[in-house]
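User: Run a structure prediction on this.
Assistant: Running it now.
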Amino acid sequence: MKEVKNNTLYIGNVSTKELAAQYGTPLYIYDQALIEQKMDDFKAHFVSSDFETNVVYASKAFLCTAMAKLVKKHGLYMQCH
């Protein structure tokens, strides 16, 4: 979740200014808790009593070892081409 406090953007309750100071810029920042919540939401809402359904993560959107582990942890499938 993102919010602004004292003119500073926070992502996942972490100051982007502090992240930039520690890691430099440009910097990609992902909120893991939000990603995991969305994975669970998709799995919960894309079910059917009429069809076999699977939630598939498009690896070309963003893929690293940590993301692949999250996909596996949440029981999603991964599109890899």
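The mean pLDDT is 93.
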